[in-house]
Amino acid sequence: LAKRQKEIFESLAGLRGDIMEDIETLLGQVKEGSKRVEKSVQTLRAEWETEVEELIAEAKTDVDLAMRDIDEALAEQRDEWKRSVELFNEQWIRPWRAPYSDANGSNGL
User: Fold this and answer.
1) pLDDT in tens, 8-26
2) Residue 106 above 70 pLDDT?
3) Please, how many CA atoms are within 13 Å of residue 72, restricted to the half-sphere of its CB?
4) pLDDT at 42 exceeding the cut of 70
5) Which of the 8 DSSP states describes residue 77?
6) Torsion on CA atoms 21, 23, 24, 29, rounded to nearest 10
7) Residue 95: its pLDDT value, please?
8) Half-sphere exposure for 104 (CA within 13 Å, toward CB)
9) Are 101 and 108 in contact (CB under 8 A)?
10) Three-class SS state of 91
11) What share of residues in the chain are helix, strand, coil (percent, to 5)?
């Protein structure tokens, strides 16, 4: 009985060793897979960062163009306003400042 018990313990020790080797092999594979996943994630992140930077640059360009268009429109509106004020002054304000005169040069008063 003791001999049989010893054989069983030796067999179990061998089985334990085999199981531990399998576990170590699997852990090594998991670690290797983890490294591959980490490298893939880093590559994806770098690609995404590049894409985001490109999108931001494009958006900045679009905003700059829009601001230029707005500045041009404002400048045109300012010029049009100035012309309108000058025209108003010429037609309504300045004639009243100068003494009224008719075609004969008299002031009609």
Assistant:
1) 888 888 888 899 999 999 9
2) no
3) 6
4) yes
5) H
6) 130
7) 66
8) 4
9) yes
10) helix
11) 90, 0, 10
More confident residue, 100 or 3: 3
The angle subtended at Cα 60 by Cα 59 and Cα 63, nearest 5°, is: 85
- CA dist 6 and 38 (Å) reads 47
Instruction: Give the per-residue pLDDT at 34.
Output: 93
Q: Which two three-digit tokens encode residue 82?
A: 């100035």
User: Sign of torsion, CA 102 105 107 109?
Assistant: negative
> What sign has the CA pseudo-torsion 87, 88, 92, 96?
negative
Measured distance CA(68)–CA(85) in Å, rounded: 26
Residue type, 100: Y
Please give the structure tokens belonging to residue 73: 């429109």
Q: How would you label 46-69 residue by residue, b for 16+ Cβ within 10 Å and e otherwise?
A: eeeeeeeeeeeeeeeeeeeeeeee
